[in-house]
Specification:
The complex is a heterodimer. By secondary structure, chain A is α/β, with parallel strands linked by helices. In chain A, helix 3 (99-105) runs parallel beside helix 6. Chain A is 40% helix and 22% strand. Chain A starts with 8 loop residues before the first strand and ends with a helix. Chain A folds into 2 domains: 1-83 and 174-266, P-loop containing nucleotide triphosphate hydrolases (Rossmann fold), CATH 3.40.50.300; 96-173, no CATH class. Chain B is mainly alpha-helical. Chain B has a domain at 24-205. Chain B contains 11 helices and 2 strands, in the order ααααβααααβααα. Chain B has a two-stranded antiparallel sheet with strand order 1-2. Chain B is globular and about 60 Å long. The chains are: A alpha/beta, B mainly alpha. The A-B interface holds A 55, 57, 75-77, 80-81, 85-86, 88, 92-98, 100-101, 104-109, 111, 113, 115, 118-119, 121, 125-126, 128-129, 132-133, 168, 172 and B 143, 146-147, 150-152, 154-155, 157-158, 161-162, 164-173, 225, 274, 276-279. Bound molecules: adenosine-5'-diphosphate and magnesium ion (MG). Magnesium ion binds at residues 47-48, 89 of chain A.
Chain lengths: 266, 279
């Protein structure tokens, strides 16, 4: 906690209240550059809400997020332009577009051809558009979807859509990539491939903030983990520290028992 | 015999002009729908363009090119005025604000001496030509295709499909929505001016709510997967009442019916072909 300056993302006292419910309750943590940081906790702990606050989809009651020294303010599109990128727990693909068009849409913040340049096909337009297409195909190659570039995005399998969503999020050239349950709904093979993919992104120098339910997945990927329960931060540390933390064990066991009781199988 | 032919050509010409002008109106509607917004102000923008152009021609005798330009700029200013505050809010506010604009314009034109009150303006010289209408329609279509196949076209489709995700892509949502509304107002104003200078008469009831619904039905019938869909819709809905004269009196009912059917059973419209988005 001494070297405060070495962080890419700094969450300060983030709080949001929905009517009576405090979904995120004075949460603070930091993400170091070049690391994979996990944000875990039982269902309803406030992880997705945290992502929505950081990416500007909902306004906080109090607190703030700082990316590379600059406070993140304003609507989501401005934050993307400031170097933030994310995926969604419930995939939000542009289904009617092709796979390649989806990835190119992720590059909005980096394309600058003006309307006159677009209409005349002069100036920056051609160079920029060609470069964007090449880059999109590289990214599709990277996530293993090169063969599907011209397919309708909505026709891809669930696992492929998850990977496409990652390619689209990487396309903006973010400083920080936030992934909300990227392995949800994947089979074991797809999950293993996803771990590999995320490790390659890390090797390329990208910083990841990862929400995930699957403990094995989280433990095998993350350098550090922050644990939420009922909107509060209850633990933080390396995967080993977190796994052995009695509060964490209790939170997860409590949630499991509660689930079983609800399902009537306890 | 010659009067018969004259009459025939006269009505024929009116119909052909209407096809092109309605095509422009359909594109105006498309511009807003293509970014996922709903405006019912197309008729009002058209009316503003029609009145502004007619007054400039009648009173100031401006050259037609300058008149057409003014007929695009003035509605664009109205679009900025109502789009600025309402587009920050979600969907329905723009629709409501544009309905209100339509009523204000109708009431103003009905009561103001400047616009000739309920009698409207007559004696507008015929300056619109076949070449002008269809040249402008073709130019608009080419520009729409060029825009579609670019970062702007991708942003438009992204916004229409999922505005939240589009925002997360870094798309400047307010600028895109306002830009679309302004372009749409310019196209409708242009169509209004061309129409005014083709018909020699304009009245305040030409630009009411039923006209707004008619323009909306062009786009919904044709489909908004590409700019060609709405133009196709306009062609069909302009020809249909001429072919089936019985339909003439029930135009509004037919258009309402088409909207319901399109929304429920043909969400992609008649022309479901989707334009590519890579330049
Ligand atoms: N927009 C909202 N309005 C009201 N309650 C919400 C809203 N979004 C989330 N919540 C509630 O906040 C809590 C945290 O939800 P969420 O962040 O989705 O949890 P998770 O950790 O599973 O991602 C839940 O109880 C959820 O019902
Ligand atoms: Mg969640």
């Amino acid at each position: 906690m001494t070297s405060m300056s070495n962080n890419l993302l700094k969450i300060e006292d983030l709080t949001v209240r929905f009517h009576g419910l405090v979904a995120v309750d004075h949460v603070s943590f930091q993400v170091e550059p070049g690391t994979v940081h996990g944000l875990i906790g039982p269902n309803g702990a406030g992880k997705t809400t945290c992502f929505n606050l950081i990416s500007g989809l909902i306004p906080p009651t109090s607190g703030r997020a700082i990316l590379a020294g600059a406070p993140l303010v304003g609507p989501s599109w401005k934050r993307t332009r400031a170097g933030l990128s994310r995926t969604f727990q419930n995939i939000r693909m542009f289904q009617e577009m092709t796979v390649r068009e989806n990835v190119m849409t992720g590059m909005q913040a980096r394309l600058h051809a003006s309307v006159p340049e677009i209409l005349s096909r002069l100036g920056r337009f051609r160079k920029e558009e060609t470069a964007a297409k090449v880059r999109a195909d590289e990214l599709l190659e990277f996530v293993g979807l090169a063969a599907s570039a011209d397919r309708r995005a909505g026709d891809l399998s669930y696992g492929d859509q998850r990977r496409l969503e990652i390619a689209r999020a990487v396309a903006s050239g973010p400083k920080l990539l936030m992934l909300d349950e990227p392995a949800a709904g994947m089979n074991p093979t797809e999950t293993r491939e996803l771990v590999e993919l995320l490790l390659r992104l890390k090797q390329d120098g990208l910083t990841l903030l990862l929400v995930e339910h699957d403990m094995h997945f989280v433990m095998s990927l993350c350098d550090r983990i922050t644990v939420l329960n009922f909107g509060r931060k209850i633990a933080e540390g390396t995967p080993r520290e977190v796994r052995e933390n009695p509060d964490v064990i209790e939170a997860y066991l409590g949630a499991k028992v509660a689930e079983r009781l609800k399902g009537g199988t306890a | 015999m010659t009067t018969f032919l004259d009459n025939f050509f006269f009505s024929y010409q009116t119909l052909i002009f209407a096809l092109g002008i309605n095509g422009l109106l359909a594109l105006s509607m498309y511009t807003v729908l293509a970014v996922g917004q709903l405006s019912l102000g197309q008729a009002a923008f058209m009316g503003i363009g029609a009145y502004v152009s007619a007054l400039l021609t009648l009173h100031l005798d401006w050259p037609f090119a300058a008149v057409l330009l003014a007929a695009m700029i003035v509605p664009a200013l109205f679009a900025l005025l109502i789009g600025g505050p309402t587009l920050k809010l979600t969907g329905v506010y723009l629709a409501l604000a544009t309905i209100a604009l339509g009523e204000i314009i109708r009431i103003f034109c009905n009561t103001s001496d400047l616009t000739g009150g309920a009698l409207g303006l007559s004696g507008i010289p015929n300056k619109t030509t076949f070449t002008l209408i269809f040249g402008l329609l073709a130019l608009a279509l080419v520009n729409f295709v060029l825009i579609a196949r670019s970062r702007v076209g991708r942003a438009m489709e992204a916004m229409r499909e999922d505005e939240v995700a589009a925002g997360v892509m870094g798309i400047n949502l307010p600028a895109m929505k306002l830009g679309a509304l302004v372009v749409s107002a310019m196209l409708a104003g242009l169509a209004g001016a061309l129409n005014a200078h083709a018909n020699s008469f304009i009245g305040p009831n030409d630009y009411g709510f039923d006209q707004a619904v008619t323009i909306l039905s062009f786009a919904l019938l044709g489909g908004i997967g590409s700019p060609f869909g709405p133009v196709l819709g306009a062609v069909i809905l302009t020809l249909l009442p001429e072919l089936l004269t019985a339909l003439h009196d029930f135009k509004l009912v037919v258009n309402g019916f088409i909207i319901v059917v399109a929304v429920l059973y043909m969400p992609r419209g008649l022309l479901s072909w989707r334009i590519g988005r890579v330049g």
